[in-house]
């Protein structure tokens, strides 16, 4: 019996010894990649070294030095993170062999996105594997340069009660009915209306939706007399442009990008002239505009629909320069 106990104790001790000999300490992820350091230098007033607040269209410099103590760097990545978008990564090659342990450069950026954007620079070895970022990054915060108004309803005119908000102000996204519009004409940029569309199938019944400025030469909606309104705003519009969801969400992200998108279109209309559902104000289309104050903007049509009382309206979102 004693022999069996001794054998058991021996086996337990042997197992513990084998386990201890096979155990390998792995490096803590928080202590890895310490051989690379990144310094953000303050060589110019335009430089960002940690956090910097600027305005749209300002030039910002990222003056950096990246050092690697034990491994050659063959390239580095500049990672740009804005909002909830997937980070953008651009890889740059280090061609000079004498700079593979210490490399410096200046990134000169023109800011064109409102809000915070974070930049991180990290080194890659000969195999393109991450070897460190110095656990540092810099953030540039661009002051608001445009206004956004989301999901505003503009109703089709009601010729009887004349109480539905079928006129719209682009400056503050407020709506006005015909009965309140005359006293607020200085704010109103357009009204909307619909008419039977031109269809390839004569039996098909659908409408085309259009907008018109109070300063239009010929009022397309004679049931609303706007001839006595004063003053009348002279906002100009582009024709509706289809497929503008991406441009509105991720392209028009500052006052300067809104202006660039708008200037790529012809903005000279007092009224849109769509003849079908597709080329009028329709789901996914957008109208670019220029206000009398010189502000560019973009109005995106989210949907053309009706409310629970069957009253038709369009739902829009607006971005306009401050």
List keywords for this structure.
five-stranded antiparallel sheet, DUF4397 domain-containing protein, mainly beta, 36% strand, Immunoglobulin-like, 322 residues, six-stranded mixed sheet, signal, 2 domains, single chain, 13% helix
Give me the secondary-structure topology.
Layout: H1 2-22, E1 36-41, E2 51-54, E3 59-68, E4 75-82, E5 88-93, E6 102-110, E7 115-124, E8 130-132, E9 138-142, E10 146-155, E11 167-168, E12 175-176, H2 178-181, E13 190-196, E14 207-212, E15 236-237, H3 245-251, H4 255-263, E16 286-290, E17 296-306, E18 312-321
Parallel strand pairs: 2-9
Antiparallel strand pairs: 1-3, 3-6, 4-5, 4-7, 7-8, 7-9, 10-18, 11-12, 11-13, 13-14, 15-16, 16-17, 17-18
Structural overview:
The protein is mostly beta strands and 322 residues long. The chain has two domains: 29-142, Immunoglobulin-like, CATH 2.60.40; 146-321, no CATH class. The protein is 13% helix and 36% strand. It has four helices and 18 strands. The protein has helices at residues 2-22, 178-181, 245-251, 255-263, and strands spanning 36-41, 51-54, 59-68, 75-82, 88-93, 102-110, 115-124, 130-132, 138-142, 146-155, 167-168, 175-176, 190-196, 207-212, 236-237, 286-290, 296-306, 312-321. The strands form four sheets. Strands 2, 4, 5, 7, 8 and 9 form a six-stranded mixed sheet that branches. Strand 16 (286-290) and strand 17 (296-306) form a beta hairpin.
Question: Could you provide a short overview of the structure?
Answer:
This protein has helices at 2-22, 178-181, 245-251, 255-263, and strands at residues 36-41, 51-54, 59-68, 75-82, 88-93, 102-110, 115-124, 130-132, 138-142, 146-155, 167-168, 175-176, 190-196, 207-212, 236-237, 286-290, 296-306, 312-321. By secondary structure, it is mainly beta. The longest helix has 21 residues, at 2-22.
């Amino acid at each position: 019996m004693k022999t069996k106990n001794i054998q058991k104790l021996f086996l337990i001790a042997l197992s513990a010894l084998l386990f201890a000999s096979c155990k390998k300490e792995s490096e803590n992820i928080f202590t890895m990649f310490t051989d690379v350091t990144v310094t953000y230098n303050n060589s110019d007033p335009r430089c960002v070294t940690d956090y910097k607040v600027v305005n749209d269209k300002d030039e910002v410099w990222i003056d950096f030095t990246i050092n690697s103590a034990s491994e050659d760097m063959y390239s580095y990545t500049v990672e740009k993170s804005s909002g909830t978008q997937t980070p953008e990564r651009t890889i740059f090659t280090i061609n000079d062999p004498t700079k593979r342990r210490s490399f410096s450069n200046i990134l000169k950026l023109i800011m064109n996105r409102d809000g915070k954007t974070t930049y991180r620079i990290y080194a890659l070895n000969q195999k393109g594997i991450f070897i460190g970022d110095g656990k540092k990054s810099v953030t540039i915060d661009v002051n608001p340069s445009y206004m956004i108004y989301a999901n505003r309803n503009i109703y089709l005119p009601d010729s009887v009660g004349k109480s539905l908000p079928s006129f719209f102000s682009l400056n503050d996204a407020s709506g006005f009915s015909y009965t309140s519009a005359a006293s607020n004409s200085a704010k109103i940029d357009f009204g909307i209306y619909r008419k039977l569309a031109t269809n390839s199938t004569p039996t098909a019944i659908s409408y085309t939706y259009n907008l018109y400025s109070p300063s239009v030469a010929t009022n397309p909606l004679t049931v609303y007399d706007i001839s006595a309104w004063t003053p009348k705003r002279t906002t100009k519009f582009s024709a509706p442009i289809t497929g503008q969801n991406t441009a509105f969400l991720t392209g028009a992200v500052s006052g300067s990008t809104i202006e660039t998108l708008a200037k790529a279109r012809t903005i000279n209309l007092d009224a849109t002239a769509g003849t079908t559902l597709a080329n009028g104000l329709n789901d996914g289309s957008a109208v670019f505009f220029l206000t009398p104050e010189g502000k560019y903007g973009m109005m995106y049509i989210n949907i053309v629909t009706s409310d629970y009382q069957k009253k038709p309206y369009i739902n829009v979102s607006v971005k306009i320069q401050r």
